[in-house]
Specification:
The protein is of the alpha/beta class. Helices cover about 55% and strands about 10% of the residues. The protein is built from 12 helices and 5 strands. It has a 5-stranded mixed sheet with strand order 2-1-3-5-4, with helices on both faces. The longest helix is centred in the N-terminal third of the chain and has 25 residues. The radius of gyration is 25 Å and the shape is elongated.
Length: about 270
């Protein structure tokens, strides 16, 4: 259980707040009629049995990808108990406590950095509300402005950008699957499994200038419309030989358009 907690608490204070809320719940429950804090004890037992243990981790991992999605399952008892306890504490009919809750809420907003309507930099909703890498906003906006197809554009990014782009612009589809990235990270470039994505991973992740025609076949096989590669890899000349041309540059990345003779409707693509 300790390993599961260490893995998923990260640098957050969720577990600390959870523990404080358990203590408060126990104290309040005992104070009301001398009971033994049954609510707090029940919360602890249920959380340990169904969430905070290796068995629950493995069971949930069989259904979903535990390394990615278990955090959401883990946060259910934590967030619900915190919300319940703070609601009980601040909204029990006492005007002073409601005022204190409002002050604390304003303080939290005031100390937020690019996450709230009110923050250090401005008094309105910032464009980069998720605190994403600025390259993400520039590249994603450029793709959607350049795209002229009827369907959603498909782009290949390095693993660093991939999730962030989908957070900002979900209309852009991944050309490289997460499973292909995980396989490559574990086994290297053996090109046996996910063979049609390995060449793209080599290009966008490390700027490897390998078999150009194999890369072109991978792009065509996966219906890729755009490549996004770090500018420092200097891929312009290598990619131009297979009709992959630069469109624009962000601070650290270059956006390339994959030119094809025809799109799916048979119309010419520029």
């Amino acid at each position: 259980m300790a390993g599961v907690l260490r893995q998923y608490q990260g640098d957050s204070l969720y577990l600390a707040a959870f523990a404080v809320c358990l203590v408060l719940l126990y104290w309040r429950d005992k104070k009301q009629g001398g009971r033994t804090g049954k609510k707090a004890l029940a919360a602890v037992v249920l959380s340990v049995v169904f969430v905070f243990n290796e068995l629950a981790y493995r069971v949930v991992g069989k259904i979903t990808n535990a390394t990615t999605y278990y955090r959401f399952f883990w946060m259910l008892p934590v967030l619900f108990l915190i919300a319940y306890q703070f609601t009980e504490a601040f909204f029990d009919g006492r005007r002073r406590r409601r005022l204190l809750a409002a002050v604390l809420f304003v303080i939290c907003l005031g100390f937020g950095t690019n996450l709230f309507f009110l923050n250090r930099e401005n008094l309105n909703l910032p464009k980069n509300s998720y605190g994403l890498d600025p390259n993400v906003l520039t590249i994603a906006d450029a793709i959607m402005e350049d795209w002229e197809g009827d369907e959603q554009p498909r782009a290949a990014f390095d693993m660093y950008l991939e999730y962030q782009v989908r957070t900002y612009e979900p209309r852009i589809l991944w050309a490289i699957s997460r499973n292909a990235y995980l396989y490559q990270a574990k086994h290297g470039y053996d090109f046996k499994k996910y063979v049609h994505q390995q060449h793209m991973i080599a290009a966008v992740n490390e700027g490897l200038k390998m078999n150009q025609q194999a890369l072109r076949r991978s792009l065509d096989k996966n219906g890729v419309d755009y490549l996004v590669i770090r500018t420092e890899f200097d891929m312009d000349s290598y990619l131009s030989q297979i009709s992959v041309m630069p469109v624009m540059q962000s601070e650290n990345y270059t956006l390339y358009r994959v030119k094809t003779a025809k799109n799916k409707e048979g119309k010419e693509r520029i």
